[in-house]
Amino acid sequence: MPLIEGRVWKFGDHVNTDVIFPGKYTYTISEPADMARHAMEDADPEFAQKVRAGDIVVAGENFGCGSSREQAVICLKAAGVAAIVAKSFARIYYRNAINQGLPIVQCPEAVDAIESGDRVAIDLNAGVLEHAGNRYRFAPLPPEVSEILAAGGLVEYVKRKKGG
Amino acid sequence: MGQTLAEKILAQKAGRSAVVPGEIVTVEPDVAMSHDNAAAIAKSFAAMGVQRVWDPARLVIILDHAVPAPTAEHAENHRRIRQFVREQGIGNFYDIGHGVCHTVMCERAHARPGRLIVGSDSHTPTQGALGAFAAGIGRTEMAAVWALGSIWLRVPPTLRVVLTGRLPHYVAAKDIALRVLAMIGPAGADYRAVEFAGDLIPHLTIEDRMVLCNLTAEMGAKTGLVPPDAATREWLTARLGKTDVDSDFLLPDPDASYERTLVLDVGDLEPQVAAPHSPANGRPVGELAGTPIDQVFLGSCAGGMLGDLRTAARLMKGRRIAPATRMIVVPASAEIWRRALDEGLLAALAEAGAVIANPGCGPCLGAHQGILAAGERCLSTANRNFRGRMGNRDSEIYLAGAAVAATTALAGKIADPRQ
What we know:
The complex is a heterodimer.
Chain A lengths: L3 E7 L6 H4 L11 H5 L10 H4 L5 E4 L11 H8 L4 E4 L4 H9 L4 E3 L1 H4 L7 E5 L4 E4 L2 E4 L5 H8 L3 H8 L3
Chain B lengths: L4 H9 L10 E4 L3 E4 L3 H10 L11 E4 L9 H17 L4 E2 L6 H7 L8 E4 L13 E4 L2 H10 L2 E4 L3 E7 L8 H12 L8 E5 L8 H11 L6 E3 L4 H11 L19 E6 L6 E3 L7 E3 L10 E5 L6 H11 L9 E5 L3 H9 L2 H7 L3 E2 L20 E4 L15 E5 L1 H10 L8
Parallel strand pairs in B: 2-3, 2-5, 3-4, 5-6, 8-9, 8-11, 9-10, 14-15, 14-17, 15-16, 17-18
Antiparallel strand pairs in B: 1-7, 12-13, 12-18
Helix pairs in contact in B: 2-3, 2-5, 6-7, 9-11, 9-12
């Protein structure tokens, strides 16, 4: 995994999947690029226009709670978000992010210090997040899980496993 | 050392005598359930380069989210699912009109004690009402289950919720669930199993247990479970016949180790209402009484049960809903719809001025059948009141049980059914 370095969009606690990707679009929009245009629509209506490739989303507790809709991961990835850092993740969102190959970092110590517009650097292999001259450590993913992320997501992982 | 019900089920599926919280097991699910998102799952499945699903008999697909199709896009989505079902020979396919997937899974006994169920819907824990370990997963993950027939799961620690006492009049399972959710918060059971216990449980119907387990999803839980008992046996026997129901059910050990135990005496519980924009914002109805309401939604896998319709019909029979308020009733399943018809409940609700719709998810997720306008307020018996959930960012959703919903429809504002 390469070093990830980018500009921060900061959100609060319990950011749910309905505000990340509203349910009314779940069966009418199917292309990732179209999903990206609605990313975070009901949390910050300006996000989708202003987000740039390589940006990093930073949030508080329980990021991605609510629906199991995977579009809530895909829309952020397609919008160019390079990683999500949070104090904690809702469990289905955590799995969906790994399955889509979107790096997620659970690092509660770092979150409070980070503000929107700041720059952070993340080394997934070393388990280190750098911000404003401070280094924060986070636990690496378990091997069963990092294998999927390393394959670039679950589709590629299954393809390899089935020898396809 | 003893094990909780969640640990016992995962240990059995992993072929082990015991598992401990935190460890990862790779297991084969007994049932893999999906709904209108099956077309998107089929697309990921095809991208994996796999031709046939691992076991067609273990797949269940139930169309419920936007039924009948409200747009051409939804219609195309349904068409693709029907085609996939034919190609793969999936027998357990429930087309539009059967009801919300979780309710149908319990009614058709796909959910059973000791089973491991994965569903591509966040409210899959509902099915733990029958003593199954039922967890929600995403679409790509479901495609991988279809391809591989296995999934990695981290064994969750168990939070035990002990319910004691007897429910007062006009207080029901929904009020218990909203109260527990308010007590522990929207991440209060994150990554955890929630096991219900206590002397109230034998007095709760399977429908009540579905509501309790349903709302564990809003607590962040991986699954919610009610250990099976006589009511479970009765429910299954009525649906499967006596010979197809296991003689012994998997139960938690008496000396099981729980991460935390929460005790709630329901004897003095008041009807609850969760204010916008979180289901964890529950408070006694009196604190929100008088709030004007434009639309009441009685329905969903958390509030469209037969018991809910009976409660509402009893309160509304012979009366009219407030002139400036509309009410939409969506029975959770076809079985409930037909019984409500036979019992005269639908007639009582329709005569009171409610719109009766077909079984399914209804307006819960903002796709159709009752989307809100900007500035409107809805009181809903569903499970989620996130901003924008019912299709409009600038609307408000209040969550409650059927008694509060009925009284509110009559009053045109949030009202206490006990008054």
